[in-house]
Amino acid sequence: MLRPFRLEEPESVKEASESLARYGDSAKIYAGGTELLLAMKEGLIHFECLVNVKKIPGLDQIAQDNGSLRLGALSTHRQLERSETLQEKLPVLVEMERNVANLRVREVGTIGGNLTFAEPHADPGTLLLALDATVVAQKAGGSRDIPMTEFFVDAYEAAVEEDEVLTEIVVPLPDANAAVRYRKFGYLERPSAGVALHVMADEARKSVRDVRIAVGCVGPKSMRVEEAEAVVRGKSLDEAAQLMAEAGDIAGRAADAISDLHGSAEYKEHIVKVLLTRAFNDIRAELAG
Length: 289
Description:
Blueprint: E1 6-8, H1 13-23, E2 27-30, H2 36-41, E3 49-52, E4 62-65, E5 68-72, H3 77-82, H4 84-89, H5 91-98, H6 103-108, H7 111-117, H8 124-130, E6 134-139, E7 142-147, H9 148-151, E8 152-154, E9 157-158, E10 165-172, E11 178-185, E12 193-201, E13 208-216, E14 223-224, H10 226-232, H11 237-254, H12 265-288
Parallel strand pairs: 1-3, 2-3
Antiparallel strand pairs: 4-5, 5-10, 6-7, 6-10, 8-9, 11-12, 12-13, 13-14
Helix pairs in contact: 10-11, 11-12
């Protein structure tokens, strides 16, 4: 049962920031509420004030700009799933969004809310890490860009200040010789493991010019695993295929896997290796085609 709270409905980012600053840590932004309200109903958390940002115009836009996609923080998972721009320019994001949670969550849950809640078993952050995305946070005094590599601090903790409002996510578009995959596995609604792989090939599409590997859902936060990336960077695609199991072992160990109802730590580490290998095989076939 929900305990009483105050609801404020600002109509600008400045007003929202001022409300958040006024209440401090006893206030929380409310957008879709799919995670927040559930936790409040269960009595796990409570806030004196919820700041409803859904009336702020312009925060649900999806646009292409100078080689990047700009995703408004209030864009719902369903909007992203159905976006023609994303279907054309970044289909891997559409595929990931199509499989987030369930239809009810996708209809009302927002990409910004998903990221700021920093739930460990969430999909979007892992893919956005591999895509080298940047989060834009604003408050009354200005705005700042937060690289995804610095955004997740710990379970349920993101690098957003108390009076900041996440307004958009900027995602650079992969180049013509790159391919990206997100693979996950789970027998419950939330995944047991998620892996994102972004391979940037050379002009001949024969070797790995650069690579990003991100792992999520197995530990307290989604993360890039640079040590695993180093194993295959600069190698031919054939060599990288032989080394992918080694990279997967490194990625699984680095992700700080936690035993829980989604599986044991050892099981999750193994699944990371399996998913990474499958993702690379898919990417290799795409680049060869």
